[in-house]
Amino acid sequence: MIRDFVQFAFNVLTWLIVARAILSWLPNARSNRWYRSLVELTETFISPIRKLLPANNSMIDIAPMVTIVIIILLENLVMGIL
Fold it and tell me: What torsion, rounded to 10 degrees, do the Cα atoms 66, 25, 7, 43 define?
């Protein structure tokens, strides 16, 4: 039961980051309150990764992708322990 909850939490976090990344490409997303709430929820996880990555002058922010990879690795580690 606890194993299912932990796996569910990791999956929800991953999908929230995916949704944020997709919505960030929409022109009017930044003015939407749902998008701003999504940013507030996910920025806690993405921000530390963004600070560790070298400055990126392109239009593509790779921090969400790196964050998802780290989440998947952590999920595998935690699920192996449980």
Answer: 70
